[in-house]
Amino acid sequence: GRLLPACFFSVFIVDKLVLVAASLNTVQRPHAQATDYLSAVNQVLGLGYFVLLVVLYIVRLPKRAGDARPWIIATSFFGSFSVILASFLPGVPVRQELQLASVILVLVGLTYTVWALGYLRRSFSILPEARRLVTGGPYALSRHPLYLGEGLAAIALNLPTVSWPGAITLAFFLVAQYLRIRAEERVLERQFPEYADYRRRVPRYLPDPVRLMRMLRAS
Whose CA is closest to 132, among 194, 81, 212? Predict the structure, then answer.
């Protein structure tokens, strides 16, 4: 059950390697713009993201509990991969006025996502499953930093070219992620009695600004 998904994610690693090479070539040209440099950083972060997915999927801990209902499985996979579909749907000409905002938000989203994966580590899964309860790092700021970072990066990536079909797909992506989060929280609450206290203390989505400031001062 681990090899096939790992091979699937590896396809994106190859794609990202090509994009990283192209981005590095772009920034070496005369008159490269700020968006070109930021895009290159984003491609490197995207490569790191998919490498982490492959490694963590292979070495993840055995699950202690999960939700294997068919509609939950379908929702989880749609939430994971529908954003890729949005990128291939017919779009509009690039909105140049949104390019800079897009690459900055993608940078923020990918950075937050990689940070979350670095703390989630061997507890990573696509389906709602319980391995161990992670409450440190970004998980001390919000309960679902991985989904928050992925959602921000996905929306920002499609922002300059998205059309109505892509916008509808992104809306379904957000709904699927919400349902996936609800299912995951039910699994964690059943498996870990301490999750109820964690849920009371830590917001679901947006980082707690007070905790964030304390963390920044401590670092």
Answer: 194
Specify whether the CB–CB gap between 65 and 132 falls below 8 A: no
**Token couple for 81:** 């991969």
Interatomic CA distance for residues 145 and 211, integer angstroms: 14
Tens digit of pLDDT for each residue in 27-43? 999 888 999 999 999 99
DSSP 60: P
Residue type, 162: V
Instruction: Indicate the CATH number for domain 64-218.
Output: 1.20.120.1630
**Domain boundaries in the chain?**
1-59, 64-218
- Record the pTM: 0.90
CA distances from 35 to 44, 153, 159 (A): 14, 15, 14
C-alpha to C-alpha distance for 26 and 24, rounded to whole angstroms: 5
